[in-house]
Design brief:
Structural class: alpha/beta
CATH topology of the largest domain: Spore Coat Polysaccharide Biosynthesis Protein SpsA, Chain A
Bound molecules: guanosine-5'-diphosphate-alpha-D-mannose, magnesium ion
Number of domains: 2
CATH architecture of the largest domain: Alpha-Beta Complex
Largest sheet: 5 strands, mixed, barrel
Distance between the termini: 44 Å
CATH class of the largest domain: Alpha Beta
Radius of gyration: 20 Å
Order of helices and strands: EEEHEHEHEEHHEEEHEHHHHEEHEEEEH
CATH superfamily of the largest domain: Spore Coat Polysaccharide Biosynthesis Protein SpsA, Chain A
Strand content: 25-35%
Length: 338
């Protein structure tokens, strides 16, 4: 199968660690960045020449540099540069069109570049190919929910299809009350990973988002396409509308590092359960904090617990861990100010 890695988002929920020009997927989490981890996982199911990365001019440098760091001889023409970010639906169309032109009818896995995922999940994803091609379903991969998180899509499974189930309802980012109800009804979270057959994808696109379909179908100039298509995610644009969606549950560990609390959970902790990143921490009665600075700077905390302290050359964030999803609101305020 082919792979498409989406690496064009700005990850505003990890501000100021991830700025628009250096989004979270390129930050090293342990030995490799999330982007590198994604690429390595894709290389388990796709030949490296069949992995496509959809990104933008600013991030191209990181994409190519970080793939080279992994020691791969990667064809640069597989890096698809969007003229501007128009969310995930145009990005996926760009990748799917390129794959169809280069390889003809194909199955392609779509992967976010900001997830932590047990690589054994790739086997399940690859085995689900039969359901994408034979049954003609747009496949999504479901995660058992652990909270009524409003940052995810919710999937209601129906009839059994063997390794997966037909989806009777797909709802992107519901409010909390609705999310609770969906969980009671046995819904799964959308992992944000998909498996699409080129033919099924474009025929569903023609039904669900005809203006985007027309634009990609009848325009050879990608600048022209991006100038006219709306900004919309695949979840709102296709998955919520299509009648041909199926889900395959994933049993393996998955996490979208959407905020600092999730990042804290993921990183190694010291004996006080503090996560200390790129700095030296001198703690006094301080536990369960995430502390980040640069170049080994000394940071001391006294009686500070469950906090996020992120120090960068031009911005400092201090927030209780449990409020870290509000960082997005700060970024929005900053955008309004500028
Ligand atoms: N190339 C490109 N261009 N990539 C993009 C763009 C774009 O304009 N916008 C976002 N991406 C990339 C991001 O970098 C990320 O890797 C992936 O696409 C998903 O985008 P997010 O912005 O992180 O989406 P989300 O987390 O709000 O929601 C999606 O993922 C959830 C699970 O993490 C949805 O699919 C939800 O339904 C899902 O639950
Ligand atoms: Mg995300």
């Amino acid at each position: 199968m082919k792979s498409i890695i989406l690496a064009g988002g700005s990850g505003t929920r990890l501000w100021p660690l991830s700025r628009e020009h250096y989004p979270k997927q390129f930050l090293k989490i342990g030995e490799y960045s999330l982007f590198q981890q994604t690429f390595l996982r894709c290389s388990e199911v796709s030949d490296v020449s069949e992995i496509f990365v959809v990104t933008n001019e600013d991030q191209k440098f990181y994409v190519i540099g970080q793939i080279q760091e992994l020691g791969y001889d990667y064809p640069k023409e597989n890096v698809l540069i969007e003229p501007e970010g128009k969310n995930t639906l145009p990005a996926i169309c760009f990748g799917m069109k390129e794959i169809r032109e280069r390889f003809g009818e194909s199955n392609a896995g779509i992967f976010s570049s900001d997830h932590v995922l047990d690589s054994r999940a790739m086997q399940t994803i690859s085995e689900a190919k039969s359901l994408a091609s034979r049954g003609g379903y747009l496949l999504t991969f479901g995660i058992k929910p652990t909270s009524p998180n409003t940052g995810y899509g919710y999937i209601k499974p129906a009839e059994n299809l063997g390794i997966g189930q037909k989806v009777s309802e797909f709802r992107e980012k519901p409010d909390e009350e609705t999310a609770r109800r969906y969980i009671e009804e046995g819904c799964l979270w959308n992992s944000g990973m998909f498996l699409f057959n080129t033919e099924t994808f474009f025929s569903e696109l023609a039904q669900c988002a005809p203006e985007i379909y027309e634009s990609f179908e009848h325009n050879e100039d990608i600048n022209q396409v991006y100038a006219e298509v709306p900004s919309i995610s695949v979840d709102y644009g296709v998955m919520e509308k299509s009648q041909k969606v199926a889900v395959v549950p994933l049993q393996y560990k998955w996490s979208d590092l959407g905020n600092f609390a999730a990042l804290y959970d993921e990183l190694d902790k010291d004996s006080d359960d503090n996560v200390v990143y790129d700095c030296e921490l001198l703690p006094l009665d301080s536990q369960q904090n995430l502390v980040h600075s640069r170049n080994g700077k000394l940071i001391s905390l006294i009686d500070v617990n469950d906090m996020i302290v992120v120090d960068t050359p031009d911005a400092l964030l201090i927030s209780p861990k449990e409020s870290s999803q509000k960082v997005k609101q700060i970024v929005n305020q900053l955008k309004e100010k500028n």
